[in-house]
Design a protein that fits this description.
This protein is α+β, with helices and mostly antiparallel strands and 443 residues long. It has two domains: 246 residues, Bira Bifunctional Protein, Domain 2 (BirA Bifunctional Protein, domain 2), CATH 3.30.930.10; 94 residues, 3-Layer(aba) Sandwich (Rossmann fold), CATH 3.40.50. It has 13 helices and 23 strands. The strands form seven sheets. It has a seven-stranded mixed β-sheet with strand order 3-9-10-16-13-12-11, sandwiched between helices. The protein is globular and about 75 Å long. The two termini are 16 Å apart.
Length: 443
């Protein structure tokens, strides 16, 4: 198969109901996207997969859902008010905007070709401001959070006291963040409104390197469990010039998207920067007391920060395949892991008469208690299979005339297109076992 383009993914998302342009009937809003019937299921399933991996399967990680609006002093303590700015220039001719540190100011504008057309660099605040209360003045300015991590740090003490967790332990959160990005591009990869899946792991300062290495490898293995092709994943360690002001060590997990290698997740050793700053700005003691050694210290933090919306784009890109069948027909298929597929089981009557539709609808309703299902009785059976392949449905059930005689149905597997005959009472257990044993071919 030829290398797919981002336009191919965008077209599929619109055509099949994964992602729509926000406010499309009004001409759309740049950098804003709506997740359609299939897209919201895919996004929720990825989030659930991550949550099970990071929280439900571990004794020493708890969950949190912090508010989007926080006290403005939070962002002073975190350094965002001081450091969350970028220098911008505009082209006087075409009005295009660029980051001053990513363009040659002595060259021509890359959009319109005009020379000597750039304005003087000026600072651009990446945080969205709003006001808390009906009156807009300087005294009630608040920000839409640019990251979810700070909500975890300011609740660190609450979680220790209520959950009785002991260092080393983690706090995980999935939530929306907002950044007034200068350049929003590549579909849902970089947007002003996005969702993060973050886990902050609190450790003894002397054990920071051990846990940094642990989470670096553990997070890479997560993507392989998700069914992502290993040759599309790599580490990108941060050099001294790339490290954020809070980081001692950092590495990105990158994925080869249709537009090239891009950051998917960051793993950072944030040292004691965050808790120390919040302790200083709030006046609250955020040290931790080890009840065995009686040692008191400010924990170091190992952060794993992944983009949920970026993960959706990654999964779509990685799952997309076009293959030529033996009859010369081209099949488009999304090879999602069954645990994240928007629809798990498609149910079809062979024809719409002789009671097959009624039987199939009743069966689909029974299966709905166990799986995400979709009922389809329109068109030839082969065409219905192709529609389910294109949205990534891993299993399809066909009800035919033999079904009425002996309660057996045809179970079709998406990846191999193999079809087997099983009794209707075996469907649930057979599919659950297939999901448990699933391994994508070639991964």
């Amino acid at each position: 198969m030829e290398k797919i383009t981002l336009d191919t993914i965008v077209s599929l998302c619109k055509r099949r109901g994964f992602v729509f342009q926000s406010s499309e009937i009004y001409g759309g809003l740049a950098s804003a996207w709506d997740y359609g019937p299939l897209g919201v299921e895919l996004k929720n399933n990825i989030q659930r997969f991550w949550w099970n991996e990071m929280v439900r399967s571990r004794r020493n990680i708890v969950g949190l859902d912090a508010a989007i609006l926080m006290h403005p002093r939070v962002w002073e303590a975190s350094g965002h008010v001081e450091n969350f700015h970028d220098p911008l220039v505009d082209c006087k001719q075409c009005k295009s905007r660029f980051r001053a540190d990513q363009i040659d100011l002595t060259a021509a504008c890359p959009v319109c070709g005009t020379k000597d057309s750039f304005t003087e660099p000026r600072q651009f605040n990446l945080m969205f401001k709003t006001h808390l209360g009906p009156v807009e003045d300087e005294s009630n300015i608040v920000y839409l959070r640019p990251e979810t991590a700070q909500g975890i740090y300011v609740n660190y003490k609450n979680c220790v006291q209520t959950s009785r967790v002991k260092v080393p332990f983690g706090i995980a959160q999935v939530g929306k963040a907002f950044r007034n990005e200068i350049v929003t591009k590549n579909f849902i990869f970089r947007t002003c409104e996005f969702e993060q899946m973050e886990m902050q792991f609190f450790v003894k300062p002397s054990e920071d390197k051990k846990w940094f290495d642990y989470w670096k490898e553990t997070r890479m293995e997560y993507y392989k469990k998700l069914g992502i092709r290993p040759d599309k994943l790599r580490f990108h360690p941060h050099g001294p010039d790339e490290l954020a002001h809070y980081a001692k060590e950092a590495v990105d997990i990158e994925y080869e998207f249709p537009m090239g290698w891009r950051e998917l997740e960051g793993i950072h050793n944030r040292t004691d920067f965050d808790l120390s700053r919040h302790s200083e700005y709030s006046g609250k003691d955020l040290t931790y007391l080890d009840d065995q050694t009686k040692e008191r210290f400010v924990p170091y933090i190992i952060e794993t920060s992944a983009g949920l919306t970026r993960s959706v784009l990654m999964v779509l890109s990685d799952a997309y395949e076009e293959e030529t069948l033996e009859n010369g027909e081209t099949r488009t298929v999304l090879r999602f892991h069954p645990l994240i597929a928007p629809v798990t089981v498609g149910v079809f009557p062979l024809v719409k008469k002789d009671g097959l539709s009624e039987y199939a609808m009743e069966l689909e309703e029974e299966l709905r208690e166990h799986f995400s299902t979709f009922y389809d009785e329109s068109g030839a059976i082969g065409r219905r299979y192709r529609r389910q392949d294109e949205i990534g449905t891993p299993y399809c059930i066909t009800v035919d005339y033999d079904t009425k005689e002996n309660d057996t149905v045809t179970l079709r597997y998406r990846d191999s297109m193999e079809q087997v005959r099983i009794h209707k009472n075996e469907i649930v257990d057979t599919i659950k076992q297939a999901i448990k044993d699933y391994k994508r071919v070639g991964v």
